[in-house]
């Protein structure tokens, strides 16, 4: 017993083997493909921590298993989604609330500089895709021109208008991208005092640039006047077209 304990306390000394012998014993019986490790590394010489050359069938089996596990590990890291792209439910809700609040604030028709508030949702530079009425524009200037025309010839003629949004449908695609769709209605009175409502649906793709959420694509679809009377979706009873 004493001699056994004594041998365990002796420092480990690797035996001297020729590199070619180690390589042959380590990889003997393997195919050419098995001799190539993960990421194309050639196992031409592998040192071993064992006192005996790994020439048995069991050791070769352990080597094969080690190669497979190494390759699976490398593949797992390569296929693992970017952690930044994972969003918790709370984070998704926070982004949706931020976008909804921005839109409602920008479309406050009782505030000053309505056109400027609308345009605050768009980037200052770069392409902006906007589809409406069967037409598509691609610049911020075109979007601003359309909004200014609407406000000049329609918005300013509406008496006591209120922009009412329907339930927001938000898909948060990543920490820096989201898409939102909402219906809207704007009950008001004409210059002659008659009650009137304009309505439609709007989809906007938002991207966060330099910490600021902006619209990069949008699509606007208006409800035709002839179907307004029978369309009550998302409209409180007090605001229905007579």
Overview of the molecule:
- This protein has 242 residues and is α+β, with helices and mostly antiparallel strands.
- The protein folds into two domains: 12-79, no CATH class; 87-232, Roll (Nuclear Transport Factor 2, Chain: A).
- 34% of the residues lie in helices and 24% in strands.
- It contains seven helices and seven strands; from the N terminus they run αααααββαβββββα.
- The chain has helices spanning 2-9, 19-27, 57-79, 89-106, 114-119, 140-153, 225-228, and strands at 127-132, 135-139, 164-165, 169-174, 177-189, 195-209, 212-222.
- Strands 1, 2, 3, 4, 5, 6 and 7 form a seven-stranded mixed sheet that branches.
- A hairpin with a 2-residue loop joins strand 4 and strand 5 (177-189).
- The longest helix has 23 residues, at 57-79.
- The radius of gyration is 35 Å and the shape is elongated.
- Residues 16-23, 37-52 and 234-242 have low confidence and may be disordered.
Summarize the structure.
This protein is an alpha+beta fold and 242 residues long. It is 34% helix and 24% strand. Strands 1, 2, 3, 4, 5, 6 and 7 form a 7-stranded mixed beta sheet that branches.
SSE inventory with pairings:
Layout: H1 2-9, H2 19-27, H3 57-79, H4 89-106, H5 114-119, E1 127-132, E2 135-139, H6 140-153, E3 164-165, E4 169-174, E5 177-189, E6 195-209, E7 212-222, H7 225-228
Parallel strand pairs: 1-7
Antiparallel strand pairs: 1-2, 3-5, 4-5, 5-6, 6-7
